[in-house]
Amino acid sequence: MSFSVEERGRDNTADYRLYFRNAEGKYISPFHDIPIYADEAENIFHAVVEVPRWTNAKMEIATKDPLNPLKQDVKKGNLRYVSNVFPHKGYIWNYGAIPQTWEDPGHRDEDTGCCGDNDPIDICDIGNKVCSRGEVIRVKVLGTLALIDEGETDWKVIVINLEDPEAEDFNDIEDVRRLKPGFLEATLDWFRMYKVPDGKPENQFAFNGEFKNRDFAIKTIKDTHSFWKALISKKTDAGELNCMNTCVSDSPFCCSAGEAQAVVDSVSVFCLAHRIIIQSPEASTRLGTFEHNEPLIAFFSNNTRGLFGFNRRLCNSKLFKDDFD
């Protein structure tokens, strides 16, 4: 299963959007259309990377916008950037969310005593690879941390990218403690302190900041998936959330490909071009030789019928044109 992303608007502005397509080229919602499971039998999940490791721009799935593109969070009219919490630089993991999950603000968690934060459940990928913004990865769940953010439950699920060369060595939260000494403590410290430079108090945690194990985390994810099912089938009030989707056929919010295209067409295009990042070799067979399994960046010009592309890593070593007649 492969996905690509398409940028609209200028990066580092409030107009910037990152839209998602599936392998068929259809626009989709990363919140509702990307399946929660990459392999249900093995409890392998999909995750959408919102913020690559070591970066500061607070990107997030726009849960209230049609098709839920990624965009930068805005507070009091200003774009949000996470401060560097000494000794760290930006986010210390690839940060993102598991699709088809929802932390229901109407459900009080029996363990934390607080209601959900109205967002998909968050993940922290501890793998060594720095992912791309909008990259969809397959992850193994290791454990979870229960952050209490302004009185709301905000689960942080600790995962590792299956493509990480060390993924086989990690199966539960204690493996993180054993193989990455100090990493869990750094994670706890980061979440406690990251809002302090903005004048806010330290964050609090349920369970006295104890990381819960893999089984607990998987149960929590499955609970939030059941909340999402009620949301997408209109069995619970969506409030301001936008449930527009193109692939959940039994959802009353399911729309046509044409309606999805109209949503994207209504958004400004940066530099009169669509920048599309294709995340898997299968999705780029018509675009030329795929090297080093690196994402391919393609530019669809508005002024020509052709497509020009290059490999992200080998920027000018593979330049080609493919006419889509």
Features:
seven-stranded antiparallel β-sheet, Inorganic Pyrophosphatase, alpha+beta, Pyrophosphatase, 325 residues, acetylation
| SSE order | EEEEEEEEEEEEEEHHEHHEEEE
- The 3D shape can be described as globular
**Helix amount, in percent?**
10-25%
How much is the radius of gyration in Å? 20 Å
What oligomeric state do these chains adopt? single chain
Helix/strand-derived category reads: alpha+beta
Characterize the main sheet.
7 strands, antiparallel
Number of helices, counting only DSSP H or I runs of 4 residues or more: 4
Mean pLDDT: 87
Beta-strand fraction estimate: 25-35%
DSSP, total strands: 19
Going across the biggest sheet, name each strand in turn.
3-2-1-16-17-18-19
Low-confidence stretches: 281-295, 297-325
CATH topology of the domain at 30-232: Inorganic Pyrophosphatase
For the record, the CATH class of the domain at 30-232 is Alpha Beta
The CATH superfamily title of the domain at 30-232: Inorganic pyrophosphatase
Assign the CATH architecture of the domain at 30-232: Alpha-Beta Complex
Protein name: inorganic diphosphatase
Cofactor: Mg(2+)
Pfam family, one: Pyrophosphatase
Subunit structure: Homodimer.
